[in-house]
Amino acid sequence: MRNSPELPACAHPAQTLPPRWSGYAGGMTAVAGLAFIGLVLALQWLRRDLRWMQAQLSVYLHGPYGLVLRTAYCLLALAIAWLALGLYAALAPTARSRIVLGLFWMAAVGLCMVAIGDSWMPELAPEAARMVHVLSGDTAFLCVISAVLLQSWYFRRDAMWRAHFPAAFLLGWAAFAVLLFHVSVTSTPQGISQKIAIVLIVLWLVWVGAWLARCVRAGAARMPHSRDNAGVNQP
């Protein structure tokens, strides 16, 4: 007898299982995102020289633990770029978007430029450093929030992700609302609003990365135990 193989709960019968490496990308992003949030929270206590309500996260790139945070920026950028590739490979063709992939990659480049530009440029070229920081930071924020919202919307087109579209979309819009508040309302403490927006964006990355890793892991575990005995001679 020949039976069709069992598919994991997060897969669609007409859709092939995501590649295994995309699950690694999701898992790495989830770990990197949680570590980044933990570092940001720790710095609020470690940097007693800064007023955490007023100081934006970019201020923490200089002074004690500045190198640690700049390194974390680059590692998070790498995770974002890899997650974007993982999602593009794992999603159904109708839910994929090269625009979203490009936006995530541009956000990763902008994040790296903020870290690299704030390492040596402030001393060698103060004016250029300020321009690079503003342009790179704005690029990172604009591209990542656009990618988050677009990708959340496209989740509706994939049977594997459709049930999680509302949570992803609401989290993305919450991050956008806080970021818009941060940019528009300058009379309030700028540090806390920026940090909340960053944490919400990273939480979206963590959630999506963890779900992608879970789907790939579930598919890899079930396929070897499927009931498909095609090609095997049974007595």
Structural class: mainly alpha
As a percent range, the share of helical residues equals 55-70%
> In DSSP terms, counting alpha (H) and pi (I) runs of 4 or more, how many helices?
6
Count of strand segments? 0
Question: Assembly state here?
Answer: single chain
Unreliable segments of 5+ consecutive residues: 1-9, 221-235
What is the strand content?
Answer: under 5%
Using only CA atoms, what is the Rg?
21 Å
Q: How many structural domains are formed by the residues?
A: 1
Overall pLDDT level: 86
For the termini, the CA-CA separation is 11 Å
Shape descriptor reads globular
> What does the largest sheet look like?
none
H/E topology pattern:
HHHHHH
Descriptive report:
By secondary structure, this protein is mostly helical. The protein has one domain. It has six helices and no strands. The longest helix has 33 residues, at 190-222. It is globular, with a radius of gyration of 21 Å. The N and C termini lie close together (11 Å). The model is unreliable at 1-9 and 221-235 (pLDDT under 50).
How do the strands and helices of this protein lay out in sequence?
Elements: H1 20-46, H2 66-90, H3 98-124, H4 126-154, H5 165-184, H6 190-222
